Amino acid sequence: MINVVLITNVLNKEVWLQAATRILARQLVRLRQQITNLQGSRAQIRGVATHTQALYASTSISTGMKGATKAMVAMNKQMAPAKQVKVIKEFQKQSAQLDMTIEMMSESIDETLDKDEAEEETEELTNQVLDEIGVDIASQLSSAPKGRIASINTENVAPRPAESQDVEDLEKRLASLRRI
Fold first, then answer.
1. Cα distance between residue 77 and residue 58, in whole Å
2. pLDDT of the chain along its 180 residues, tens only?
3. Most buried of the four, 32, 75, 142, 154, by CB within 10 Å?
4. Which of 171, 136, 170, 135 is nearest to 153 (CA)?
5. Alpha-carbon torsion angle 145, 148, 154, 157, nearest 10
6. Residue 76: its pLDDT value, please?
7. Measured between alpha carbons, how far is 149 from 45 in angstroms, rounded to an integer?
8. Contact 130, 137 (CB under 8 A)
C-alpha cells in the first residue's frame, strides 16, 4: 500500500510537474512574443522620432527661407534693380566719354609741346656733349675717315709729349662710350 501511495504520489508529482512545465513553457513563449513585440514597437518609436526630427528641421529651414525671402524683397524694393542697371549704363557711357576727352587733350598737349622743344633740346644736348669733348662737328666732319675705326690698344702705344694728356682723356671717354 505504501508502494501504491508512493507510486500515486510520484505519478501525481509527475502530472503536477508536467502541468507546471507547460505553464512555464507557455509563459516563456509569451515572454518571447512580448520581447519581439517590444523590439518592434521600439523600432517604430525610433522611426517616429527620426521623422519628427526631420519635420522639425524642415520647419526650421522653411522659417529661415521665409526670413531670407522677406529680406530679399525688402532689398529689391530699396535697390530697384532696373534703376541700378540704368545708373550703371549711364556711368559706363560717361566714363567712356571722359576717357576719350582726356586722350584727345593729352594728344593735343603733347603735339603742342613736342614740336619745337624736342628738336631744340636734342640739338642743344648734342652740341653740349660735343663741346665737352672738344669736337667742332662742322670743321672735322669733312676730314673724318669714311671707313670703320679700328680699336686701338692703348697699352702698346707710346705717349706723345704734346698731346698725351688730351689724347688719354679722349681715349678714356671713347672707351667708356664703347662699353655703353
1. 28
2. 556 665 666 666 776 677 778 888 888 899 999 999 999 999 999 999 999 999 999 999 999 999 999 999 888 888 887 888 899 999 999 999 999 999 888 888 877 766 666 677 777 888 888 777 766 655 555 565 565 555 555 555 555 555 678 888 888 888 877 776
3. 154
4. 171
5. -50
6. 82
7. 107
8. yes
pLDDT for res 79 = 81
Beta-carbon contacts of 152 under 8 Å, excluding residues fewer than 6 positions away, are: 171
The set of cell numbers assigned to 89 is 549704363
Q: How far apart are CA 97 and CA 48, in angstroms?
A: 68
**Cα–Cα distance for residue pair 144/137, rounded to 1 Å:** 10
**How many residues are listed for the chain in this entry?**
180
How far CA 45 is from CA of 6, 54, 55, 87, 148, in Å, comes to 57, 14, 15, 60, 107
Long-range CB contact pairs, 51-59, < 8 A, 24+: none
Separation CA 1–CA 10 (nearest Å): 14
